[in-house]
Amino acid sequence: MTTYRMEAATLGHVEEEVARQKSVLSNLHNPYPSFISRLPTEILQDIFIHCARDYHYKHMCPTKSVPSWVNVSYVCRHWRNVALESPTLWSYLFIMSRRWTEVLLARSKQASLKIRVSLVPRKWLSCVGMVMKHVERIQELCLHLPASFVLPKLSSRAPRLQDLNITVEYPNSSVEWPSLLFDGDTPALRTLRLSSCPVPLRSFTLSALTVLHLVHIPARFRQNTEEFLAALSRMQDLQHLYICHALPSATGFLSSAVFKTFEKIDLPHLSRLRIRALLSTTVTLLSCINIPLKTQVRLECNSERNSSLDHYALLRSLLAQRYKDQAQSNPTILSLVIESTERDAIGLTFSPRQRDTTSMTYEAWDCDTPLYIELNRLMVDRDVIINDVCSSMSLSNVQTLSVHRPWFSPAFWRRILRQLQDVRYIMIFDGNMPDLSVLSLTDHTAHDSEDEDVHLGGLTPGDRGQSHILAPRLEELELEYLTFFPDNGSNLSGNAITRGCLFEALSSRRLEGSPGRLIMTRCDIPGTARFDMVAVWGGGCFAISERVHSPDVDSDWDSDWEVEEEEQEEGEEE
Questions:
Q1: Cis before residue 461, ω within 30 degrees of 0?
Q2: CB-based contact 539:508 (threshold 8 Å)
Q3: SUPFAM superfamilies of this UniProt entry (predicted)?
Q4: How many C-alpha atoms does 550 have within 13 Å on its Cβ side?
Q5: Helix or strand run (H / E) with residue 143
Q6: What is the pLDDT of residue 56?
Q7: pLDDT tens, residue by residue, 192-203
Q8: What gap in Å lies between CA 321 and CA 393, rounded to an integer?
Q9: CA-to-CA distance for 185 and 189, rounded, in angstroms?
């Protein structure tokens, strides 16, 4: 009897546990059983469209297989019905075959089409032509085509077209493109990018344009300066303007009567301006447009055979008018980066960031740097041009000067440091150690000619004959990957000095407050290994406070220097 009661109790406990588990499972299923199957149709459509859009902007068709997002139409009957009843989903066209093209055009119904095509095989070019017959429905069109494929004259109307991007691969100057694509009937066009594409701007309605990219237009199809300016005058809403090797030389226009009386074009909404062109063309565009001070400007100027100092003088005048004469509205420039590139070009980065030692490129937009200039194929003295450009800027607040691959003469350093009276940190990187003897105690401007002072933005003639401390607030000098000439070696280049010369120049500086700091990292002397060093200087003293030796570096050189400095200090005290 007792055993029976125990079995009954155990059985009852099991039944209770089963009931409890069923209750838990029931609560998990209710009140939202099969949640994914109960999603509203609108949400499912949005999810499907998001997948298609994400794939569309990450991949340029053609692809080897059908895009993965198409599989949503094969999951179940409900999902297939939802997908087929969403024309927008099928408007993200992919071109693989004639059959798929016909299916997509049918399923998209009258939805606006988005097309991205890249170097389609010749057998699929007919599919591209099939899509182009629906040009009145196209909203976004991005074509990356071989030069052998020529677009036919498209429909006379493209009322929905907002974004047009055409790139021709290896353009052939002998291929004739239609002079007009849309007969100028593109009223909704907002973004226009043409790369190596010989299509004139008169093919489009430009009054609503916000982004214009013209890149590497073949020479025989480039519009002259007056034609381009006439088209630009209709783009009052323009926000981004990129001109890269797309216009011919404007030397003739600069010397014409039209230029002297030209009424400037207002582009009040422009936030980014990038010009990569001949010097005369760059100067012309800057002269003929009015843009906000907040506009970020990237310039890459290529000198021409007939480039003259007048062109550089005009560039300097334009920069001065924009950045110096209106300094009260200009973002404060705290860092100046000068870079000599491997292709004999000079890059100048004017940065509002403190201790910024990173050079930019003419196409970089990652920070609010107001101006970047790259000068190529300079046919005049590089030192003169750099000083000339820098003198046109408001550099009174610059605290960081960074120079990559230096070659500059002492005269250059004297002139540039006159403009940077507040500089506190100088970094020199990669190359031969330049002659910084100008960092000695005083700078006697009487040695400079009047022409240098006036033309290069130095001190005025009235200041000549006076002594000035160059970079009086300099606190830190950092040298990295620099080569010093040995003490007994000859300096054939005239642009580099020995360590002893540098130490003498620094130790003679009399600083108020704490001494300056010298950091040398991975520097070398021919015939020795690289060395690192940290030292302090100022007020007639020079002392090495820290040093990391390479295994084969002679350690006696610097200890001898310290002993010599100590003896000099003792003599001064006596």
A1: no
A2: no
A3: F-box domain (SSF81383), RNI-like (SSF52047)
A4: 14
A5: strand 138-146
A6: 84
A7: 999 988 788 888
A8: 9
A9: 9
CB 219 within 8 A of CB 171: no
pLDDT in tens, 179-224: 677 777 889 999 999 998 878 888 888 999 999 999 988 887 788 8
Position 81, amino acid: N
* Segment 310-314 long-range contacts (CB within 8 Å, at least 24 positions apart): 311/254, 311/279, 311/280, 311/283, 312/279, 312/380, 312/385, 312/388, 313/388, 314/254, 314/283, 314/287
Q: Are 368 and 292 contacting, i.e. CB atoms less than 8 angstroms apart?
A: no
Identify the three-state secondary structure at position 505.
helix
Tokens of 137: 């429905």
Coil vs helix vs strand at 532: strand
Q: Which amino acid is at 303?
A: S
Name the maximum alpha-carbon separation found in the chain: 126
For residues 430 and 438, the answer to whether their CB atoms sit within 8 Å is: no
How far, rounded to the nearest angstrom, does the alpha carbon of residue 268 sit from its chain's CA centroid? 22
Q: What is the mean pLDDT of residues 61-85?
A: 79
Sign for the CA dihedral angle at 488, 493, 494, 499 comes to negative
Omega into 331 within 30° of 0, i.e. cis? no
pTM tops 0.85: no
Least confident of 80-94, 277-291, 367-381, 443-457: 443-457
- Phi and psi dihedrals of 160, rounded to 5? -100, -10
Q: CA dihedral defined by 353, 356, 360, 362, rounded to 10 degrees? A: 30
Name the token pair of 471. 């970079």
Q: Please, is 134 exposed, middle or buried when counting C-beta atoms within 10 Å of its C-beta (0-12, 13-18, 19+)? A: middle
- Contacts for 293 with CB less than 8 Å, ≥ 6 apart: 322, 326, 329, 330, 370
Q: How far is CA 446 from CA 127, 413, 450, 552, in A?
A: 76, 16, 9, 45
